[in-house]
Design brief:
The complex is a heterodimer of chains A (about 250) and B (about 250). Chain A is an all-alpha fold and about 250 residues long. Chain A contains eleven helices and no strands. With about 250 residues, chain B is an all-alpha fold. Chain B starts with a helix and ends with a helix. At the A-B interface, helix 3, helix 4, helix 10 and helix 11 of A face helix 3, helix 5, helix 6 and helix 7 of B.
Chain lengths: ~250, ~250
């Protein structure tokens, strides 16, 4: 078993796109085991950090019930509410229903709901690594790559180092710039995967680029295709109803 | 790191060449992003902290923004059409401010200063990520264009050198100064663009014309595509509206 210091160096090398670390990983006889440890440890650390951040947010926010009551009392006391109630009483009923359901006020962080994330984050990371690595391996081999499956997995596992950016979630309210963390981690992850495939398969830059991008592109096309199918079927079902058929 | 920061601001090509040939090009470049992000995050977080230190001060800050918007509407060309909106705001704003203050004064398990400290820390740690996301996006597009134009640099060199374009954004720390803040932001953006062109030229061994083209090619193409898509949407909207009116 590798020491924690070695694993940390690997994660940092993966995060900083260090080609030497990826090359060493390609040649290592324990590359896949190391990559597995990296993926699981990074996922576990990020999941734990996000949970700690959730606890911090929970402890610095008021009780959801008190927030709901204050909001209800304040809004119904405003002049616009009185005018609206006089014009359309149905809106008042809908308003009261909205406030009666606690699920509509789940903006407050809930550490209990976030706890499964500690285990789910490494699991999602593991599945993403296996699927992403396999697709990248097939594509890279099709483009003339030379690495074995284990070597591809060993190198693409290091790309999980990019997810280490998620550690900032240990600070409550850390996602102040919406999408900043997601964009940074996704783009850095793609760049790290590009370096991983290039170093594992000794491919030319453009071939490595397409080998890495083909998986996400296919997934995107598949999702858009499925979405179009659903919309098409739904629209077809709606149009098959005769006009005024409900009467 | 400070030397590299100064070299970026002064477009020092010798320092950029040294960075390009360094095996730690990514780490050194990203340290500049981290430094600028932490600086801007700490200052803007402190500015927000001062404005939201107490519920009354938060309400006063919101009130100042609403008053400014109202003045703009009153002086704007659509003042007459927007009169009902102004009337709605005038009728309800006092109750709204009272509600806001009451919500902000609700008790929390930990004292309010702890929450404020968390929000300041959050500003400090999330600002570098904002810069990093924008940097990665522009670096990836520039690198693809540069390679198509005959560039020879690696993605590591492009990322490390491109990271220097974040250096002028240290000016964003002064963003809290009214009127001057946005002007400084624009200057920082333009200065960063020039650094990115020089960085691309150094990383990919391209002449300045090709480097400029590499930096601008995909943003211009994306902008053009966005504009065409918007025109298409407006055309469809107008067509649908005129079809529905008949």
């Amino acid at each position: 078993m590798e020491s924690l210091a070695t694993i940390f160096r690997l994660v940092l090398g993966g995060l900083l796109l260090d080609a030497r670390v990826y090359r060493a990983q390609r040649e290592s006889t324990v590359g896949v085991q190391r990559a597995l440890v990296v993926v699981l440890l990074v996922g576990l650390s990020v999941g734990l950090a996000a949970w700690i951040g959730d606890i911090g947010e929970y402890l610095t926010q008021p009780d959801p019930q008190a927030t709901r009551d204050t909001l209800y009392a304040g809004l119904t006391a405003m002049p616009w509410f009185g005018q609206l109630a006089a014009e359309s009483p149905d809106v008042v009923t809908a308003f009261e229903q909205l406030f009666a359901d606690p699920a509509n006020f789940s903006l407050t962080a809930n550490p209990l709901a976030g706890a499964p994330g500690i285990l789910l984050t490494p699991l999602v990371g593991l599945v993403s690594w296996l699927i992403g690595g396999s697709v990248a391996h097939i594509a890279a081999r099709a483009f003339g790559g030379t690495a074995r499956y284990g070597q591809t997995l060993a190198c693409t596992g290091l790309a999980a180092g990019a997810n280490l950016l998620g550690l900032v979630q240990i600070v409550p309210y850390a996602e102040q710039i919406p999408g900043g963390l997601w964009l940074s981690a996704s783009l850095l992850g793609l760049l790290a995967s590009y370096v991983a495939v290039r170093e594992a398969h000794q491919l030319a830059p453009w071939r490595s680029f397409w080998a890495v991008l083909i998986g996400p592109l296919l997934a995107g096309v598949l999702i858009i295709g499925l979405y179009c199918c659903v919309v098409f079927v739904f629209a077809g079902a709606l149009s098959s109803f005769p006009v005024g058929g409900g009467r | 790191m400070i030397e590299l920061f100064n070299a970026a601001l002064t477009l020092n090509q010798r320092a950029m060449l040294g960075l390009r040939d360094s095996p730690e090009v990514v780490r050194r470049g990203l340290l500049v992003v981290l430094f600028v992000g932490l600086l801007v995050g700490a200052v803007s977080g402190a500015s927000t902290l001062i404005n939201t230190a107490t519920p009354a001060r938060t309400v006063a800050t919101v009130q100042a923004v609403v008053e400014q918007q109202k003045r703009q509407i009153t002086l704007g060309p659509n003042a007459e059409q927007l009169q009902p909106l102004l009337q709605f705001v005038n009728e309800n704003e006092d109750d709204f401010y009272a509600l806001l203050e009451e919500l902000l004064s609700l008790p929390t398990p930990l004292p309010r200063p702890v929450g404020l400290a968390f929000q300041w820390l959050a500003s400090v740690v999330s600002t570098p990520l904002g810069y990093l996301g924008g940097l990665l996006f522009s670096v990836v597009l520039t690198h693809i264009a540069a390679r198509q134009l005959g560039g020879q640099g690696s993605i590591q060199q492009m990322l490390g050198l491109g990271a220097l374009s974040v250096a002028p954004h240290a000016l964003d720390a002064l963003g809290f100064i009214p009127a001057l803040g946005s002007m400084l932001g624009l200057i920082a953006w333009l200065w960063g663009l020039v650094i990115l062109v020089v960085a691309t030229s150094v990383a990919h061994r391209l002449d300045s014309t090709r480097a400029t083209l590499a930096v601008l090619l995909y943003p211009l193409l994306l902008g053009l595509l966005g504009f065409l898509a918007l025109c298409g949407l407006i055309f469809l909207g107008v067509a649908a509206a005129s079809g529905g009116g008949q």
